[in-house]
């Protein structure tokens, strides 16, 4: 009886093993495509954030700022990595000129949320209250540091 049992089980186990190996090979082959899809989705999301940030910038910031030239507010070209209050040809408030802040995602988020609370005595009277709007605006501002032709001269 044992031989009859083994005769029936062994081919089933061999077939199962072949299927398991085939499935593993298929997963290994498909893994790069899955990673590429996830990366493409992340890039599309980032592009959406940047586009939304550009819309916010154009509707809420362009009244006082431009990308390449100073206006009522300082230019935003190369804002990332720049020390607050450091553009030589712009007249900052003493509070902002003396601030020891380097603009990055974290500092811009705090600044945009409530400029006066972050740097008391500064002159910007506009804030961006919604977290998502700040995130999108910062994503857009970051692109201005990547493609600007005008360097910041402290």
Overview of the structural elements:
The chain has 154 residues and is mainly alpha-helical. The chain has a domain at 47-147: Cytochrome Bc1 Complex, Chain D, domain 2, CATH 1.10.760.10. Helices cover 61% and strands 0% of the residues. The chain has five helices and no strands. The chain has helices spanning 2-61, 94-97, 105-113, 115-118, 131-147. The protein is elongated. The termini are far apart. The mean pLDDT is 83.
Principal-axis shape equals elongated
Summarize the helix and strand pattern as letters: HHHHH
- State the CATH class of the domain at 47-147: Mainly Alpha
Question: How far apart are the termini?
Answer: 91 Å
Level-2 CATH architecture of the domain at 47-147 = Orthogonal Bundle
CATH level-4 homologous superfamily of the domain at 47-147: Cytochrome c-like domain
CATH fold node name of the domain at 47-147: Cytochrome Bc1 Complex, Chain D, domain 2
* Binned strand content: under 5%
Query: What's the story with the biggest beta sheet?
Result: none
Radius of gyration (CA) equals 28 Å
Q: Count the strands?
A: 0
What do the pLDDT scores average to?
Answer: 83
Which residue ranges are poorly predicted, with pLDDT under 50 across at least 5 consecutive positions? none
Percent in helix: 55-70%
**Helical run tally:** 5
Q: Structural class, from secondary structure content?
A: mainly alpha
């Amino acid at each position: 009886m044992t031989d009859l049992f083994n005769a029936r089980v062994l081919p089933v186990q061999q077939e199962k093993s072949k299927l398991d190996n085939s499935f593993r090979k298929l997963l290994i082959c498909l893994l790069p495509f899955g990673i590429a899809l996830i990366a493409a989705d992340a890039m599309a999301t980032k592009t959406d954030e940047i586009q939304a940030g550009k819309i916010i910038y154009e509707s809420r910031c362009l009244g006082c700022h431009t990308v390449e030239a100073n206006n009522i507010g300082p230019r935003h070209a190369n804002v990332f990595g720049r020390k607050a209050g450091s553009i030589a040809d712009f007249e900052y408030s003493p509070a902002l000129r003396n601030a020891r802040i380097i603009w990055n995602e974290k500092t811009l988020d705090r600044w945009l949320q409530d400029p006066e609370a972050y740097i008391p005595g500064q002159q910007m009277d506009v804030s961006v209250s919604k977290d998502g709007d700040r995130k999108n605006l910062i994503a857009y501002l970051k692109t201005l540091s990547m493609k600007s032709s005008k360097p910041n001269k402290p």
